[in-house]
Amino acid sequence: MTLKNSLTYFALILVCTLLPLVSGEYYVNLGSQIMIAAVFAASLNLLVGYGGLTSLGHATFLGLAAYVSAWLYLNMGMGHAYSAPVALGLTTLVGALFGWISLRASGLSFLMLTLALSQIVWGVGYRWVSLTNGDNGLSGLTRPMPFGWDLENSTNFYWFTLIVTIACLFFIGKIVNSPFGASLKGTRDQDKRMSALGYDVWKIRWITFVMSSFFGAISGLLYVYFNKYIHPSVISITSSAEALLCVIAGGSGTLAGPIIGSILIVLLKNYVSGFVERWNMLLGVIFVFIVIFMPAGLVPGIVQLKTRLLGDKK
Amino acid sequence: MNYALEVKDLQKSFGGVAVTQNVSLQVMPGERRLIIGPNGAGKTTLFAQITGDIKPDSGSITLFGKEMTSQPIHARAHLGMSRTYQIITLFPKDTLAHNVVLALLGVSQRKKQIFSSMKLTDQMYDQALEILDHVGLKNQAYRKVTEISYGEQRRVEIAIALAQNPQVLLLDEPLAGLSKNERVMVADLINSISKEKAIVMIEHDMETALAFAEKILVLQYGKVIVDGDRDTVINDPKVQEVYLGH
Hints:
By secondary structure, chain A is mainly α. Chain A has 14 helices and two strands. Chain A has helices at about 5-20, 25-50, 60-75, 80-100, 105-125, 130, 155-175, 180-190, 190-195, 200-225, 235-250, 255-270, 280-295, 300-310, and strands spanning about 140, 230.
């Protein structure tokens, strides 16, 4: 990492850390939601952007971790310190199983399998009322208190989410810049060639699927801690599609893309919807604009634009 | 005898069409073997079965005595086999150096490392530069594949295959689509490959191919019509009739 990059990251983290001190609770909560969406989108980006595997069922992992954590708290009286690792472990295990099933196929068939599997989980969430409380969802939850730090306070929760988000993005960054990450990107670009070069393409994809479900589960825990409520709609195709939109709009296969995409979608969903009734229509217009003028997404598009205007300094 | 590559009674049909019929082939370590035949003779299909891209209906393939007929494609690379493609198959968005690094990484345990960094200062990039130097492309190492000519891309294909340090190298029409000068350059490059490595090559450029070959296998309609040393095959009346047009 260059000094310039390090300073940029440090400045960004500093701005994000200080943000709650100069803004009201509404914006602090908005910031927390953006970060949760960013972790979720970044976890999906591992599959879509770096693995070339477009999934339409990623909300399963967010929803499942949230449900397991909430259920254990409400029905077993389990504290967050125990329920969180159980939720993460179980969701990752389901990710391993779903990955094993989905990766029997590729391309459109892979997408359909991920959608089908997520619809099963969504169906369980809606219909198995004795387990999930059906359409009423699970409520009456509390936020954890790590080392006595009260996360019921919005600002504290924001900082907690910021720490988790930075950690997740750091590890995702490490993964994609590692030899394994190079292998993963190779399977995205030339899977046949990668096999001939000695790579077990299926195993690389499966490991990525499992890691992606793990990070998706982390976003699920943050989601349920933030909302203190979980409803089956969180596992729906709409949630999965929203995450996919964050990745594509921001720029798949880039670390910053899902963050920018999440800022865009969450702001539109929460902020603009207060002024514009049909915010979905506005989202559609923006998405069409991005696809036409920056087909690779906002981040690569802006980089290209900068290069065109200022020239390549390399 | 311990052959580098041995193919025994290989058979493959697509529907009712037999594309490989009882094909057998033995390649000694370090041997230069040419596979020729008219278009549609089943040469590339035979390659695809040897590399594992296509599963044969019956028959066996062994590499240095190790059975690999049912081995997955990636396992064959670890047994010492590498290949080039008739249609260039590179990583177009990446640099030449990164293309070669991916080949080096493929046969290394390092590819499993999840939390270590892959930097340009990495030792593997130094190795990649050495290999690119061997194929005459060191000065273009940090250009993207899309920025170099077709002939240079052919040389990158060979660089990638060599980076795997194979014992058996399969070259599928390495001279296809090249200009006369480029053909000479690539042919020289192939001739410079260490004699420790066995090379099996499919090629239509007869002048270059015959100069390269020690032994030749001729296929027609998926069948071996002649298999032997260069002079025997060239003088065989069936070959002259079917392939050389005499």
